[in-house]
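Protein details
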Amino acid sequence: MADKELRKMNRTELIEIIYALQQNEKTLREENEKLQGQLKDKLIRVEDSGSIAEAALSLNHIFEDAQRAAGQYLESVRSANENADQILADARSEAEQIISDAQNRARQTETECQAMKENAEKEAKWKKDSFVRDVMRVLGRYPELAGHIQEFLKTGADTSSAD
């Protein structure tokens, strides 16, 4: 509308035009708010989809890191098992060696003890024989002493068994 037409209009017509313009403005504002809401909703969706994509990428990295860590852990467990197997094998070998050494030492000690026993028996026999020779020599010189000793042995043997 031109300025001339507006000047020719009366007050009621102008008010009607103003009212129509206000209604039109109100409708446009409502439509604008509605469109801005839709735009905001779409922006949120776009941001969320970006966030979701970023989150998915982040999760992929987390899963990759977790997979690597799990692989490293399994490798360390395998290594520890191999070390444990080696330690166990070494311990068994050492135990067998200790047992073998102990058995050898026991046989050697038994042999030494048997030899000591035989030597002790020989020495005891030699001392007994020597004692008997000495006693016989003394008894040969003193025959009356031999009679007393025989009596003592008869009566002493009876009394010593009573003790």
The mean pLDDT is 82. The chain is about 95% helix and 0% strand. Helices lie at 3-8, 11-141, 143-162.
